[in-house]
Design brief:
alpha/beta; Rossmann fold; Rna Polymerase Sigma Factor, Chain: A; 3 domains; 7-stranded parallel beta sheet; 4-stranded mixed beta sheet; globular
């Protein structure tokens, strides 16, 4: 029997990788829902290829330009997940949330009651709204699987171990495209160079976050919440080969590592088949040569100034939301050539000390609407500041 799968953010890089895997395994999976924000042409093409009869387009204006195309192909279009799924009588086997940015939070929460398993590749959802996600997951008896390669690796390594037995968890970072350059030499470097990640093929936003090390800071915050551990249990190590994705050192003296090729298809495929014991993926053999000279490096805060953010506390307050909102906007400004590369670091660290924002660091949002209002508040403040 085929397993039903919902794919949120199907037109992005994670969505494309997921559909690529399903294309090879149509006998086991049936895609029942796709979503996008603005890429209407692409989602129409995807819906036709995978025979998906329900899609969600969050941007109504974009949809109306192609309305006839969907009707011609007998594809039902909705503008919210609730409208698309409210008549469903059974839960899907798996939902993969590949929506990028804070926009992924509300769809994550809304989809939980319609799915047995939820895999999230969206850092911002977990960082900003984990307490709301966790509440819904528990309420609806929905299983959660982290899809980010590092968190999936930790989750996999911990399967047969007690979380209280963990002494230290190391999250590995590639160091990005500027690892071997001094910060003073790349202060005004153009976005096209910052986008040239040495190991991974990623979207623009996450590529810039990798260059600044913000991506890894987010991953620490994310791991603190998912695994309910103190931030002191985590450390970032630069691993230029990007072959080891997580290392866990246990109180027993044992250390476990998880390695795989730099492709998100591997964690995605393993998530899709997490309940199988005879699952296989067609990739090259184990590359033992990459384990020769692993070359782990402690990141230098002078080269990656944003690492200072790890001195703050992460207690499910407005701090995390403000942090995400500022970074989203600064990366957007940088990609549009409105600010310099060094400005991402300088403005971020300055804004986090501003009393206008810092006064919210000890209070928590009561609902999703308060998260949205704070994001809007930060965006307005940042626009005036810049």
């Amino acid at each position: 029997m085929k397993k039903d799968l919902y794919l949120l953010g199907s037109t992005g890089s994670i969505g494309n990788s997921t559909l690529k895997l399903i294309r090879k395994d149509k006998k086991n999976f049936s895609v029942k829902l796709l979503t996008t924000n603005t890429n209407v042409k692409k989602i129409l093409k995807q819906a036709k290829e995978f025979n998906v009869k329900k899609i969600v387009i969050f941007n109504k204006t974009k949809f109306y330009k192609f309305e006839k195309n969907f009707k011609r192909n007998k594809i039902s279009v909705y503008f919210s997940i609730e409208d698309a799924l409210k008549k469903n009588k059974r839960k899907s086997f798996l939902t993969i949330n590949a929506i990028s940015g804070i926009d992924g939070l509300e769809p994550s929460i809304n989809i939980i009651k319609y799915t047995k398993n939820l895999a999230i590749a969206n850092k911002e959802s977990i960082i900003c709204g984990w307490k709301f996600l966790n509440r819904e997951l528990t309420k609806n008896n929905t299983n959660f699987i982290p899809l980010d390669s590092e968190h999936f690796s930790i989750w996999s390594l911990l399967k047969n171990d007690n979380i209280t037995n963990v002494k230290k968890i190391y999250l590995t970072a590639s160091g990005g495209p500027f690892l071997n350059k001094k910060l003073e030499n790349i202060k005004y470097i153009k976005p096209k160079f910052a986008l040239q990640h040495p190991n991974w093929k990623m979207g623009k936003k996450i590529s810039i976050d990798s260059a600044t090390m913000m991506n890894k800071i987010f991953e620490v915050i994310e791991a603190v919440k998912i695994f309910n551990l103190s931030k002191n249990k985590f450390q970032i190590l630069i691993h230029p080969k990007s072959y080891i994705h997580a290392i866990i050192h246990f109180n027993t003296g044992l250390t476990k590592m998880l390695a795989h090729k730099t492709s998100m298809e591997i964690p995605i495929a393993n998530v899709m088949n997490f309940n199988k014991y005879n699952f296989k993926i067609n990739y090259n053999e184990f590359d033992y040569a990459k384990l020769n000279g692993l070359n782990f490096i402690v990141p230098d805060p002078k080269k990656f100034p944003l690492l200072k953010i790890l001195n703050y506390e992460f207690n499910n307050t407005f701090f995390e939301i403000i942090l995400v909102a500022i970074n989203d906007e600064l990366v957007r400004y940088y990609l549009n050539n409105q600010i310099s590369y060094i400005s991402i670091h300088k403005i971020m660290l300055k804004l986090l000390k501003k009393r206008y924002l810092a006064k919210f660091f000890n209070t928590s949002p009561k609902n999703i609407n308060e998260i949205k209002l704070m994001v809007n508040k930060v965006n307005s403040y940042l626009k005036k500041y810049i």
